[in-house]
Amino acid sequence: MARTSKGTTSSNGNPQSTSQEIAVHHKEELQEAEGTREGSYFRPNVDIYETSKALTLVADVPGTAAEDFEIDLRDNLLTIVGSVREVDPSWQPLYSEYRVGHFMRQFRVGQQIDQTKISAEITDGVLKLTLPKAESAKPRKIEVRTA
């Protein structure tokens, strides 16, 4: 586990050092992944945010390029599959913590999402999917009139 130091000042004005733990997240390998590619499948960490207009799904997929993804929406099931290209096979790592394999996640998409407008982009190993809400699912203000 890694530690980071954070400098503080004591009550007498002398500098102090405190340590905080940094959580280490390891890739979670899927044990029963159904895939058409050989190799290991991993479950990427995902965060989902909601606004009044859309859901935003953010997935950590380091080493995966835009052309290495297959994102499919069928029968309200959103499937994200990505593959990481192997590092130059002539390299002989002295130490390795990173395993090459495929990423896979699936999500049920409800009727509140406009499925025709889902978009995806990747930047620096982070995949961002935007799932816009259908007009009927967006909050609206109802005007109160006097009789």
From TrEMBL:
Stretch list, region Disordered: 1-39
Cited SUPFAM superfamilies: HSP20-like chaperones
Residue stretches making up the SHSP domain: 37-147
InterPro entries: A-crystallin/Hsp20_dom, HSP20-like_chaperone, Small_HSP
Any Pfam family the entry gives: HSP20
Skewed-composition ranges (Basic and acidic residues): 23-37
Compositionally biased region (Polar residues): 1-21
Family: Belongs to the small heat shock protein (HSP20) family.
Name of the protein: Hsp20/alpha crystallin family protein
Organism: Lujinxingia vulgaris
